[in-house]
Amino acid sequence: MAKIIEYETRSGKRYKFLYYAGVDEKTGKKKYIRKNGFTTKKAAQIALARLEYQKALGKIDASTKKKVRFCEVAREWFSTYKLTVRESTLGTKESRYRKQIAPYFGDCYVDKITLQDCQKAVNEWFQAIPATMPGCIELVNSIMELARKEGYITDNPMKDVTRPRRTRTRDDNNFYTKQELNTFLGRVKQQENKKIYACFRLLAYSGIRKGELLALTWGDVDFKGKTLNIDKALTNRINGSVYVGRPKTTASIRKIALDDLTLKALLEWKYQQARDLLKRGYNANTPQQIIFDDNNGNIVKYKGSVNRWLRKIYQKNPDLRCIRVHGFRHTHCTLLLESGASIASVQERLGHSDVNTTLEVYTHVTKKVRQAALNDFINYMEG
Fold first, then answer.
1. Locate the Tyr recombinase domain: which residues (predicted)?
2. 33 pairs with which residues across the strands?
3. Do residue 119 and residue 196 come from a single domain?
4. Cα separations in angstroms, 138 against 22, 157, 320
5. Residues 249, 123: one domain?
6. What is the reported pLDDT for 376?
7. At how many degrees (to 10) do helices 326-338 and 343-350 cross?
8. Helix axis angle, 178-191 to 326-338, nearest 10°
9. DSSP state of 132
10. Reduced to 3 states, what is the DSSP secondary structure of residue 290?
11. Is 323 exposed, middle or buried (0-12, 13-18, 19+ CB in 10 A)?
12. Of 40, 74, 138, 162, whose CA is between 20 and 30 Å from 81?
């Protein structure tokens, strides 16, 4: 048994001991447990006897596990994650961690985080912003898994949480029908300049993403072959600025066919842009020229520029039903499927890496077709 030592402090006599706990199997070094501050020798003896009892039961582990905080493991996880994704994706994850996850777990030791702690966080994420809850769970789970692999914890409590059930509210109205699209484009062609008309005509008749649209150069348009090459996209940086980088996924790199009227709208804008920039002393007749520029030949400063163009159109036309910019991609997908295009061809044209994304729209379209068929039958029977 360890020896109890008496020592003096300003408050009087105190007692301490140094207990030998065994040899650390990992390091081969002896481990000692130091206790002090006992006001009586009897209190020190009781504490020492308790340690002896725990050691006899095998409850004292001589191994020295490093205690780390959740934020330390998170830094280690992000240092690897940033090498695998685009800067915009990294920025989204870092923002989610900083705003929603760090307040709950950042300063906690990972081995002290319980299932109850995780469930409380999940419930509060769900109540605050339900749509972000799955992403928060996924991120915490990834960080905790790294902690488990590193040996800081034995179990990952985030894996056992109960996810509050979300009422999925798919926005079934974020697209135009054939008639609505024709009305919209007719107004834009009549009221707006050639650039704005070419922009929304291309979005609606190609289904490309907003970031892909804003990264296009004239070298991407083959007027003779009637095709459009998609191999880059305008992407947000962590600091809010933009840059032209690789597309969202490998499937996003594609070449799609364009119709004659869309090509005509692009060609008319190409000539107009060249004249406008020439007046400013710029030569726009190069393959590298950005198509939908900032009016000075450069890429726009932020991706929301197209949103601003669309808002102005709706302000002039309050009778038009409003959809978001992404709704033109959904419109193209919907009308393609309604026209009889195969799921595989639509997936390829839109650059969906997961066919389930295309199938979600397909399910929506088939429901509409089934309902239309029923309506025709009822009208026939009751007519």
1. 171-375
2. 19
3. no
4. 40, 12, 39
5. no
6. 56
7. 160
8. 130
9. G
10. strand
11. buried
12. 162
Spatial contact of 175 and 331, defined as CB atoms under 8 Å apart: yes
Cα separation of 101 and 121, whole Å? Answer: 8
Question: Higher model confidence: residue 372 or residue 299?
Answer: 299
* Cβ-based neighbour number of residue 233 at 10 Å: 25
CA 187 to chain centre: 35
C-beta of residue 62 within 8 angstroms of C-beta of residue 24: yes
How far, in Å, CA of 38 to CA of 45, rounded?
A: 10
Q: Report d(CA 267, CA 272) in Å as an integer.
A: 9
Cα–Cα distance between 338 and 330 in angstroms, integer?
12
Structure tokens belonging to residue 302:
């932020």
> Which residue type occupies 230?
I
- Stated pTM of the model: 0.64
State what percent of residues in the chain have pLDDT above 70.
87
Phi, psi for residue 325 in degrees, rounded to 5: -60, -40
Specify the pLDDT at position 29: 74
Is residue 21 a contact partner of residue 32, using CB atoms and an 8 Å limit?
A: yes
CA 240 to chain centre: 15
Place of tokens 């109540």: 127
* Of 318 and 67, the one with more pLDDT: 318
Per-residue pLDDT of 125-184, as tens digits, reads 999 988 889 999 999 999 999 998 888 888 899 999 999 986 655 556 888 989 999 999
Distance, in Å, from the CA atom of 252 to the CA atom of 210, rounded to the nearest integer, reads: 13
Domain, as residue range, for 36? 4-56
Name the 3-class secondary structure at 35: strand
pLDDT in tens, 56-75: 777 666 555 567 999 999 99
* DSSP strands (E only) in the chain: 4-9, 12-23, 30-38, 221-222, 227-230, 233-236, 242-245, 254-257
**Residue type at 42 in one-letter notation:** K
- Pair (50, 75) in one structural domain: no
Give me the count of residues in the chain.
383
Same domain, 317 and 189: yes
Give the CATH number for residue 299. 1.10.443.10
> In this structure, is residue 364 part of a structural domain?
no
Write the burial class of residue 336 (CB in 10 Å: 0-12 exposed, 13-18 middle, 19+ buried). buried
Tens of pLDDT, residue by residue over 295-310, are: 889 999 888 899 999 9
